[in-house]
Amino acid sequence: MTRFAWVVVAAVTLARVIAAFTLPLTGDEAYYWEWSRRPAFGYVDHPPMVAWTIAAFAWIAHMPGFVRLGSVLCGAIAAVALGAATVELTGSRVAGAVSALALTLAPLATVAFIIPSPDGPYLMFWSLALLCAARAFRRDRLGDWILLGLAVGGVLLSRVLGFALLFGLLAYSLAGPQRATWRRGMPVMLATAFVVTLPFLIWNAQHDWVTFTFALLHRHEEKREFSTANVLMGQIVAYSPGIWAAAIVCALRPRNALLAWTALPQFLLVMLLSAFERVEISWVFGFFVSLCAMLGVAYVALSDRARTTWTWIAGAPATLLLIILFVFIFAPAATYHLV
Question: Rounded to 5 degrees, what are φ and ψ at 306?
Answer without folding.
Answer: -65, -35
